[in-house]
Amino acid sequence: MSLKPFKTIGMGAAFSPNLKANLYEAARLSLFFNCKLVLIHVGEASEDKTKTLKVFLNAFKKDHLNYEVVFKPGDPVASILSATKEKHIDLLILGAVQRERFITYYVGSIARKISRKAQCSILLLIKPSVERVPCQHIVVNGLKDPKTEQTITTAFYVGKQLETEKITIVEEIEQDQIPVKVDDDKSLRRANIMKERIKLRENSRIKEIIEHIPEKYTKDVTIKLQAIFGKQGYSIGHYAQVSRADLLVMNAPSKMTFWDRLFPHDIEHILTELPTDVLILQ
């Protein structure tokens, strides 16, 4: 398993009011992860655009930030996806959209299409900031899946680089794993016993994964295991929101199909209403 999952970070550089904040977030992450930063602008190149980007990034000159700017005219989705392949980007940063008159955030149509089609990991930012906001609490999915071990390992790597204080691993358990109809005290006790057995089984599985992660990534951080009975995607999103997590780390779905649009995949629940910044790992 790789403990240096990101070598090149990409960011869609749209000249919007959030440009400076997005650039600062991307630059800081590139420095934290010791990565090259590739800024992708959908549009024609111009001296004014190049100068604007350079002026903003002058703040990181002393840190020897390694970056380049790519101009790609054409369709935004196709242009960004082609740039990620050409530049071998393995983490792409995208901005979320705030719902009008609400404090919730969601993934806009362009970012959502990119999230579905990208072959690299995606970081969705809901509130980019020029001043650094510490990442104190990371929530990561612990569901039983072939990708989960790498996802949890990467979450600890990210936590180490960002000096995170706490990592919570959430095991989402579908209610149908409790095949007991609760209609009296006896059946309620049976259901509770089954739940406790499942929790113990899931905790044992997660602890085994953590044991395989090098100690330098797991020490000096509070680790919590949290089993939740409920719908995948919705449950972990709700938990990340109520626990005020700074980052939610999820497995990327194996493949998005037409049926996932009709019957939403766990990632689709997250994209519809982002609880916090979300890192989707390939």
Automatic annotation (TrEMBL):
Residues 58-124 form the UspA domain. InterPro entries: UspA. Coiled coil: none annotated. It holds the Pfam family Usp. SUPFAM superfamilies: Adenine nucleotide alpha hydrolases-like. Belongs to the universal stress protein A family. This is Universal stress protein.
